[in-house]
Write a structure and sequence with these properties.
Helix content is about 55%, strand content about 15%. It is elongated.
Length: about 180
């Protein structure tokens, strides 16, 4: 039986609580307690960071983003970088596999329709060598093949167009 680091567990509990409270605040924008709630969350966050400075300095997560449309790839990469993630970009499936050989990434986000090696084949290659690697499929359409990959648990799926907050929330969920 493995035991979790109590400091890491405290940070995880705080992050879950923070997400729940922020969701409540966004759903109840006129609640007069929101300012007080936000003040207490900020203070709790400060205290946790003081007690766990080593956890606050953890390296950024490395994400491989595979998207052939440069505008979309740049928008997603910028949103992820603003969240502190390190993003490695690929414009096609062959380039993605080459980058996977060179970099130790924590998550792959890939479009389904990409040149040289489509998203389905890319996911199959990833699963063959990295069965536990989280994969997020993105596409403007959902085919039967995509449905099979998703229902098998091999990957998550977001339908384009994707709002950056939805992308960030999905990435955070996949990484934790």
């Amino acid at each position: 039986m493995t035991t979790k680091d109590p400091k890491l567990e405290t940070v995880e509990i705080f992050n879950r609580l923070n997400d729940l409270v922020r969701e409540h605040v966004s759903m109840q924008p006129n609640d007069p307690r929101n300012a007080e709630i936000n003040t207490h969350l900020a203070e709790l966050s400060r205290l946790i960071l003081e007690e766990t400075p080593d956890l606050a300095k953890s390296p950024p997560v490395k994400i491989l983003l595979v998207e052939d449309e440069a505008i979309t790839r740049n928008a997603f990469a910028d949103a992820l970088r603003r969240e502190g993630q390190e993003v490695i970009e690929a414009a096609d499936g062959v380039q993605a596999l080459s980058l996977l050989d060179k970099w130790d990434v924590d998550l792959v986000i890939t479009d389904l329709v990409i040149p040289r090696l489509n998203g389905f084949l890319l996911v199959a290659q990833i699963r063959a060598t990295r069965p536990r690697m989280p994969v997020l499929l993105i596409s403007g359409y959902l085919s039967q093949d995509a449905g099979r990959i998703i229902s098998s648990g091999s990957a998550e799926f977001l339908h384009k167009p994707i709002d950056p907050p939805d992308l960030i929330a999905t990435v955070q969920r996949l990484l934790h």
